[in-house]
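Replying to the earlier thread about multi-chain prediction with a worked example.

Input:
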Amino acid sequence: MAEFSWDIRSPLERALVSGAYGAPGDAGVALTEIRNFDLVQVMARRGKAAEMSKAAKGRFDVAAPETPKVARTADATLIWSGPDQFFVLSKGGKHGIGALGQAFAQSASLSDQSHARVLISVSGTKARAMLAKLSSIDLHPDVFAIGAAAATSMDHTSVTLWRSADRDGLAVFSVLVFATFAESLWHTMLDSAAEYGLAINHSEDL
Amino acid sequence: MRIVCPFCGERELGEFTYLGDAKPVRPAADAGEDAVYDYVYLRDNIAGMMSENWYHGGGCRAWLKVTRNTLTHEISAVEPAAGAGAAKVGA
Ligand SMILES: [Zn+2]
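Result:
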């Protein structure tokens, strides 16, 4: 019998080249792929939305978002992904598919999306200008504050977009995209950001 | 054209897919061939206010019932279609 050695590889492994890209000088946009996360889709069963909310509150000690927002705990981010559904984003298995089953057994269906999505973090002084080329969402800070989220499309590709905590006084946007569309969206992002100069990286830190 | 999704807010048309007339109701199993033919094939070509099914596939993936004037594209109401966002329907 043939033996296989299964390696976990990022769908962006070929496309992502760490370092500088585009216009020289200070990078206006930082693109960082976040690798090795746990991502679980939680969807209420018919008529069980209230029960799912209660289960989420019990499990995470914060209410799951019921509008396009994210809710954060010390070690997990709950991201609205549509009516009566949300993602649980975390690391290290504590809130992975195996750990959540019990809590939602009576109210929701879970599906492991850890290797089905790519997570891209967009920051830098020109992050909004670059995203404005791809997204029709109004990302002005008055409208899209920290914790705001959207299920939307970029370049005809479905994404989940939210604003994470600021870093060094600058906004940080997180984009979850289907793994098979990630390379295409990645190239579009590089094209959009090239004029501002890019710093490309990958990281294991959520 | 933009549609105000009851779940997501105002979005561009490109995020939505049009299904068609929201009025036809599936006939009962014993309703007869004419009723089924009518349900499957016959549609009114409405010039004016129309109730339509739209899918927010590029967003929250909810089915919506949109009331639209086919002459002006003016949208007067958007509500979740039955089964979408179970908690909100009928609320
Ligand atoms: Zn929507």
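Residues 19-35+115-203 of chain A form a domain with the Gyrase A; domain 2 fold (CATH 3.30.1360.120).

Feel free to reuse this layout for your own posts.
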